[in-house]
Design brief:
By secondary structure, the chain is of the alpha+beta class. Helix content is 29%, strand content 29%. It has a 5-stranded antiparallel sheet with strand order 2-3-1-4-5. The longest helix has 19 residues, at 115-133.
C-alpha cells in the first residue's frame, strides 16, 4: 500500500472514529455490489419452481436486501446514516453454475459513498436465500461478495476487473 494511503476510520492514536464528512460537497454517488449463493442443482430447481415451503425465495431475498441497505448504519458501527435515493436488488438463478447471482445497486446524493449499503444488500439477500433453503441444502455457500462499480466523490470511478 502506498505510504500516502491511510485508514480513514482510525485517529492518530489508532482508535476507531467516525469520519467527519460535514465539509464535503453533496454529489451523486452509486455503488454496485455482487455475490452468489452456490447450491445443489436440486435446490436451485426448487427455488426456481417456487416449491419451497417458505415461499418465493427470490422475491423475499430481494426485499430483504432492500430493507438491509436502508439499515446499514445500524449494522456497521462507523457508517453514516444516509437518505438513499434508489436501491435495486436482483436475484437471478444461474443453472449452469448452480447458483443464485445477486446484484445490488444503490444511489444517493450525499457526502459519502454507498458501497457499504450495496454490500449489505447483497449479503442479506444471500443470507435470506440460505435461510429459506437450508432445510433442503445446508451446504450452500455464500461467495464472491464484492463491490464491482463505484462512482462519485473525490476518488471518482472504480470498476472491478
Amino acid at each position: 500500500m502506498p505510504m500516502d494511503k491511510k485508514l480513514t476510520h482510525l485517529d492518530e492514536t489508532g482508535q476507531a472514529k467516525m469520519v467527519d464528512v460535514g465539509h464535503k460537497v453533496d454529489t451523486e454517488r452509486i455503488a454496485v455490489a455482487r455475490g452468489a449463493v452456490i447450491m445443489e442443482p436440486d435446490t436451485l430447481q426448487l427455488i426456481v419452481e417456487g416449491s419451497l415451503k417458505k415461499g418465493d425465495v427470490l422475491t423475499l431475498a430481494e426485499v430483504a436486501g432492500i430493507m438491509a441497505a436502508k439499515r446499514t448504519s445500524e449494522l456497521i458501527p462507523l457508517c453514516h446514516p444516509l437518505l438513499l435515493n434508489k436501491i435495486d436488488v436482483s436475484c437471478t438463478p444461474n443453472e449452469d453454475a448452480s447458483c443464485v447471482e445477486i446484484e445490488a445497486s444503490v444511489r444517493v446524493r450525499g457526502k459519502t459513498g454507498v458501497e457499504m449499503e450495496a454490500l449489505t444488500a447483497v449479503s442479506v439477500a444471500a443470507l435470506t436465500i440460505y435461510d429459506m433453503a437450508k432445510a433442503v441444502d445446508r451446504g450452500m455457500r455464500l461467495t464472491d461478495i464484492r463491490v464491482v462499480y463505484k462512482e462519485g466523490g473525490k476518488s471518482g470511478i472504480f470498476e472491478a476487473q
